[in-house]
What does this fold into?
Amino acid sequence: MAARPSHDWRPAMFGPAARSWHELGLATPSFPDVESALDGAAVLLSGTGWSSDVEHQARKLASAKGIPNVAVLDHWVNYKERFLRDGELVLPDEIYVTDEYALSEARKTFPSISIRQHENLYIAKQLSELVRLKGKAEEVLYLLEPIRSDWPRHEAGEFEALKYFLEHWDRLMIPSDATLRLRPHPSESPNKYIEWLAYNPSQNRRIVIDENRSLANAMAHARWVVGCETNAMVVALYAGCKVISTLPPWAPRCRLPHLGIVHLRDI
It folds into this structure.
């Protein structure tokens, strides 16, 4: 969310979500747990992330309390799985999506649930910042993400995809002296990639770890934006960057449905 809410919000969030909330200047105090936030609430609005069970437990508790609940799908893959934990499926009463691709997929996956499309305020905010910050675009920005899948052969999927990109960089006609900026996912520590680079050859590339808190700042000097299938690649597509999926041939194809994404494996 990128706009100041006009309602009485009762936020319960942790980790990267809590940091983003405060960075937006939203000073509403956060509740220490979901149960206290739901006590007296008229409706639950939840995200659909992978990295914790907080949102799943919130939907489960709201259902038990008879509180209507709305879930926001801000990605384009694994829709049913986002509501499943340890075999337990807890669906919302209503779903919000932010573009026509997500609307089509959500309607196919959840035909009995009301689906509404709303403006993607996050992308709008990033594009507004990019217009202000945009400089000479010469860098390659790699948007990293943890891969939770069983396709990797020898190491974590994010590292296999990164290595595949470094080995086949020349296929993309990117200048050999271009700087490669690695941007860790908000849920990851930069040390994860610093340590990997220390034990893996860089193919003579100039590689730096991006430490910008803002995605727009990281993207301001990027001509090429690469990654596996993180939703930040969609921001880059709207920003007019050349967007490339680095998922190797032995991995499933990138599931982002947006036209304009180039697949390195196909070149």
About this structure: Confidence is low (pLDDT under 50) at residues 1-6. The chain has two domains: 16-119, 125-266. The domain at 125-266 is CATH 3.40.50 (Rossmann fold). Residues 137 and 223 are 5 Å apart (CA to CA).
